[in-house]
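Re-running the complex after MR caught last week's input typo. The corrected sequence lines follow. Everything else is unchanged.
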Amino acid sequence: MKNRVRTVIGVVVGFAAVLGLMASPAQAVTFDVNYSTIDISGGMVTTMQNDLVGGGTPHGSLVTTVYQNAAHTLYTYEAKFIPVVNEISIISTSFVPLGLTGSVGWSFQDATLAGATSASTAFASLLGAGGLEWDRNLAQDFWSANQQMRFFFQSTLAPGTATFGVYNQSNASIGSAVGLAPAAVPEPMTLVLLSSGLAVAGLWARWGRRDA
Amino acid sequence: MRARVGILGIIVLAVALVLTPAAASAVLISGVDYATIGPIGTVYQGDVMISTFMTSDLTAQGGPPSVANGQITSSVYYNGTVFTYVLQVTPLQAGESRLSTGFLPALYNNSAGWDFTGAVLAGAPGTGSTAFTENLSSTNLGWTKLSTATALWDGISPDLVTFFIQSTVAPGLSTYNLSGTGLPNGSAAGFAPVAAAVSEPGSLLLVAFGVVGTVAMASRRRGFRANRAA
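Corrected-run output:
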């Protein structure tokens, strides 16, 4: 009986350790940041391009590109929208980015080039119930067709290679496209720790049997 | 004589330009409370339609298939002067934040808005007057949810909000869009003030005068030349 209790305790401790390691700690995020201030000097990780589709007609293109910082500890997800329609009013993701941290914002340079009178208030970024959102400042008249606008967020997680996220734009028509998104892939160290926990639990159970 | 024809042409062009509706630039307009717009008359020719907002099919890109993200009931009322397009919108999930039209409506006295009381019942703070920001761009009309109104359209019933548009343009069919996070944006068909514009009798009369005048001038010119040649 005593051994069974020990075994159960061992398994519970192992699971708790694993769950504790897998849980993403809530991290502070700064919104409305200028993209040009972000460190992406670690180089490009990968990129993906898709058409923005909706209602059977083309609405432009989406290019998502992931960069790393110099220390290779942070991934920056850039979403470049080039609509073929005027005055996009809202950009959003259909997913809450895993490992979201650091900064969220847009390219102030792109906003200025697209005619925004105040690039720092051209959009308002926020984390909504189902993802990130960049609401255009409707008091400013800017962003015509075929003008690029880069939005970004940062994550501690690398982009998935099999699972992606959906990005959206909206004005008089809607457009959505699949792009790169952070994936919850266990890191090697996590796997090592998981194995260690299971091994300890197994040994504990074995010691219990030997004592009996 | 040539000068006269030239002047006539300029006048005709000027009249045409004045009669052509100008495209509006993007402006924020004040949302009107649905409860204050007075008698809207009765349902026009039975125009009531229930539609579902459907998201884009992204399976070709390795994404999700088309799904429903909301419902809209569009109804048209007519009081003898103005058509009122009533749009009852219910998102099917939390995260939706913007309703927009797929067309540029010709508004009657800038009259468009939502039911303030209904918005409060759906979770908007205060009197509901700030629940949405209303924007008329060069392409469409949109209502963006107040970002701090987290209880509004939170996926918990009731989430129905009634929007409206007033116009003198008779109903046709167009699209409405529901955008936000969580699911891709969706669009749905509904009644909208997009019926083909019918020229007013006054406009037709002006065009007729212009044509008659041009023909008369040309006729006089031919007669003058014939006389000179003789």
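None of the earlier attempt is carried over here. The CA atoms of residues 53 and 175 of chain A lie 5 Å apart. Chain A touches chain B through 39 residues (CB under 8 Å).
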